[in-house]
Amino acid sequence: MQKEPKYIVITGGVLSGLGKGIASASIGFLLSRNLKIVPIKCDGYLNTDPGTMNPIEHGEVFVLDDGGEVDMDFGHYERFINIRCKAEWNLTMGKIFQSILEKERTGDYLGKTVQYIPHVTDEIKSWIYNIAKREKADLTLVEIGGTVGDLESDLYLEAVRQMRTEVGRNNIMFIHLTYIPIPSGSKEQKSKPTQQSVKILNERGLEPDIIIGRCSRLLDDKIKSKIAMFCNVEKEAVISGIDVKSVYEIPFNFEKERLSEIIHKKLQLYSPPDLDLWNPLVANIKKNHTRPEQQVNIAICGKYTALEDSYASIIEALHHCEAHLDLQVKTSWVETTDMEKGSVILEKVLKNVQGVIVPGGFGIRGIEGKIQVIRFVRENMIPFLGICYGMQLAVVEYARHICGIKEAHLREAEADGITGIVPVIDFLPTQRKVTKKGATMRLGGYDILITAGTKAHEIFADKQIRRRFRHRYEVNPEYVPLLEEKGLIFSGKAAGEDIVQVMELPGHPYFLGGQFHPELTSSLSNPAPLFYHFVKAASEYSQS
Ligand code: GLN
């Protein structure tokens, strides 16, 4: 007989941005040795998925192998739990309502008034139960987005409250992440915000079994007792969520306070944490963040530089390289919108930089600045990594300055009113007639064939790889012969299709680009090869 599925529900209180996704992922990491863990994220917004949202508002759009555009927390889940997540594991109120309205039109509720309770809460529960069942999950982690008290998350809270009776109290537990501030002018940690946010949960009929308090100093005995007493939890179940240099320290910190044991006590599913693989890697990152063996300065030239969350997976991929190359990567953000005035500024901006990343992007804001940056690093032999849009711009730069096509541009620029262009980057044929925006790009994992004898072949050490994509445009096949004749090498092609997937420039220490997003499949134990070799080249450049 299959064991009864177990559930852990993770909520957040007091503030947003406390790291609920990473806390959930860390819990998953700690329990994943013997258990099949399935993370579900419940978002309160009415978009079907975050695919059409601006990353400045919502952080990076993470792309799954199955093509799902999902919340950035799925990046943490995949990196920490070592699983391949699925699009349907990201619930949104948009999806829930869409499904309910479709059922209503079909007549599934005939004769009934369709209501928040029970219809919306039933729909939420059935999504969660069905996923747990289909995946044969031993443990389903249900992370509820937002902060308790937000109107948007109330229906999810009501659904998980009902679940407690349905699945049995021994099969579900509640973990609440809160904030324990030390107000300026005081030396004391304060529990009141936690008490108040637990009260909000209590009003919804929920009681946390574990409270994780985000803090700048380990929670002492006194504050743990106080929280235990006012919030009805065991004192051992009040855990410090101390600020860290590297997020990969978090599971280790939780474990120091016996988190997995406390979960086991309640749910009876002990799966002793496996910390051995990460231990030396985390130690290496920590060491290099305090006493770096070497510091490598990487500039990221993007549009959403105001919010680091927009590039969360890129930052993580760089951390993965730090662990393996025994160095510290210092990233600087270059806002190319202000840069379109001349190379003087450019030289200043890139003065101490040993590597440049031009990440994925859309539209033309800052584009000429990026093209100038790419020209500069190409000519000055500074390592360069172009990701998706970044690779497309490297091709535009090469077409303009080496192939002599002055009007070379992205087809995408026409949507922003630029005319008279030569589209060296053009629509993917399948995209020409697409008019709807949601989930219509070329999305998800595709196989790539790597040409033998190229730098890409050396880097990937494989003739076929699989990577994730999110794009509408490609290198225009009409211009490939000319670009190749002038020296660019297209070293990766889509399996079975004529789409350029990897670009490189021979004779340069490192000038590579991928139409895919290498950052999405990088992990602490297995850094993305395009990043690893890029950072290695940057470290060699800094030593030369
Ligand atoms: N805007 C480009 C395209 O759609 C690049 C997308 C990206 O960088 N993810 O092809």
Description:
The structure is a single chain. A nine-stranded mixed β-sheet has the order 11-10-12-13-21-20-19-16-17, with helices on both faces. α1 packs parallel to α3. The chain starts with 5 loop residues before the first strand and ends with a helix. By secondary structure, the chain is α/β, with parallel strands linked by helices. The chain has helices at residues 20-31, 55-58, 73-81, 93-106, 116-134, 154-167, 192-203, 221-231, 250-256, 259-267, 278-290, 312-325, 343-349, 367-379, 389-401, 455-460, 480-485, 529-543, and strands at residues 6-12, 37-43, 62-63, 69-70, 90-92, 139-144, 172-179, 210-215, 238-242, 295-302, 328-335, 355-358, 384-387, 408-410, 422-427, 442-450, 464-471, 473-475, 489-494, 500-504, 511-514. It is globular, with a radius of gyration of 25 Å. The protein folds into two domains: 12-267, P-loop containing nucleotide triphosphate hydrolases (Rossmann fold); 280-543, Rossmann fold (3-Layer(aba) Sandwich). Glutamine is lined by residues 360-362, 388-389, 412, 470-473.
